């Protein structure tokens, strides 16, 4: 009797794994492992292909240099037709990142395309760190400092970098 139950569980799991979104996420994960872009990493959380943990390393020779910033990516069965919900877990000070860690980035909203994979999403977010759009602020103080007082903005960014070393 238990053999039948075990088979049934495996069969259900296999069927669940074979949805188009899950197949695509497996492909994204394989590609990320085989050819990881510089300064990013990501993987599914535990055994849940629909929830990922990721890390973006601050780009060299920028105020973000040396930082390790943690994010989560939550996918739905609509992926890749709809973007994941991406959030920084690390505290951030950036014109396009809200206090709750959510990110104001066009490819995660109205400019989404199914051609974007996890690597492209993370690479775009890494680029956003150094190239913010202060005209569409999620954090008005960060946007104001970025535009009016770059030295103070960079000082606050360096604080976030230092916090990223010790934060859980």
From TrEMBL:
Residue ranges of domain UBC core in the record: 20-166
EC identifiers of the protein: 2.3.2.23
Catalytic residues (positions): 104 (glycyl thioester intermediate)
UniProt key word Cell membrane: no
Top EC class, one word: transferase
Keyword DNA damage: no
Keyword annotations from UniProtKB, A to Z: ATP-binding, Nucleotide-binding, Transferase, Ubl conjugation pathway
GO molecular function: ATP binding; ubiquitin conjugating enzyme activity
GO biological processes: ubiquitin-dependent protein catabolic process
Matches recorded under Pfam families: UQ_con
Family to which the UniProt record says this protein belongs: Belongs to the ubiquitin-conjugating enzyme family.
PANTHER family: UBIQUITIN-CONJUGATING ENZYME E2
Protein's UniProt name: E2 ubiquitin-conjugating enzyme
Organism this protein belongs to: Oryza meyeriana var. granulata
């Amino acid at each position: 009797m238990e053999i039948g139950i075990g088979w049934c569980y495996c069969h259900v799991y296999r069927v669940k794994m074979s949805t188009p979104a899950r197949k695509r996420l497996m492909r994204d994960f394989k590609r990320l492992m085989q050819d990881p872009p510089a300064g990013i990493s990501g993987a599914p959380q535990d055994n849940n292909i629909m929830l990922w943990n990721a890390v973006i390393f601050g780009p060299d020779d920028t105020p973000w240099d040396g930082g390790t910033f943690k994010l989560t990516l939550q996918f739905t069965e609509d992926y890749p037709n709809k973007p994941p919900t991406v959030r920084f877990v690390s505290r951030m000070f950036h014109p396009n990142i809200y206090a709750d860690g959510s990110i104001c980035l066009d490819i995660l909203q109205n400019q989404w395309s199914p051609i974007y994979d996890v690597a492209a999403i993370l690479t775009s977010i890494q680029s956003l760190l150094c190239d913010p759009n202060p005209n569409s602020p999620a954090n008005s103080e960060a946007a104001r400092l970025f535009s009016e007082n770059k030295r103070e903005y960079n000082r606050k960014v360096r604080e976030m970098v230092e916090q990223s070393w010790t934060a859980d």
